[in-house]
Every structure is written in C-alpha cells, then in structure tokens.
Design a protein that fits this description.
Elements: H1 2-35, H2 42-86
C-alpha cells in the first residue's frame, strides 16, 4: 500500500512541480519579450502563467510516462550494443 502511494505521488507530484517551475519561467520570458520591461504587470504575467500551466500540467501527465519508457528503451539498446562490441 505504501509503494502504491509513493508511485502515485511521484506520477502526479513530479509533473506538478515541473510544470509550475517551467511555465513560471517561460511565461515571464515570453511576457517580457512581448510587452517589454515597462509594460509588464504582475496580473498580466500571472494570467499568462495560468494559461500556460493549464496546458503544461496535463501534457506532462500524458507525455512523461512515454518519455520515461522511450529513455529506458534507448538505454537498453545502448547497453546491448556496448555488450556486443565488447565481445
């Protein structure tokens, strides 16, 4: 039961924190680029952040497991290739 809770927390908490941090920085940069330093407001930035986070979080929930599996396959192939060349 504890293992299931940890797994569920990892599957939701990691994308949650990652999406908050990424969209926070990206929305600031894109808002600054679009409006400049003089015209940016906290409300405008937070509005841009909220919209980007609403897209990023569900996207990460869907994409992250696929990326993890892809990386595992890549690592296994590289490991198999390294073993074949070592022989």
């Amino acid at each position: 039961m504890i293992q299931i809770k940890i797994s569920l927390i990892e599957k939701v908490l990691m994308p949650l924190i990652l999406s908050i941090l990424m969209t926070f920085v990206i929305s600031l940069v894109s808002t600054l680029k679009a409006l400049g330093f003089n015209d940016i407001t906290l409300v405008g930035w937070m509005s841009a952040w909220l919209w980007s986070w609403l897209i990023a979080f569900p996207t990460l929930l869907i994409v992250l497991p696929i990326v993890k599996k892809f990386i595992q396959i890549l690592i296994m192939k590289q490991h198999a290739n390294a073993n074949q060349t070592a022989r």
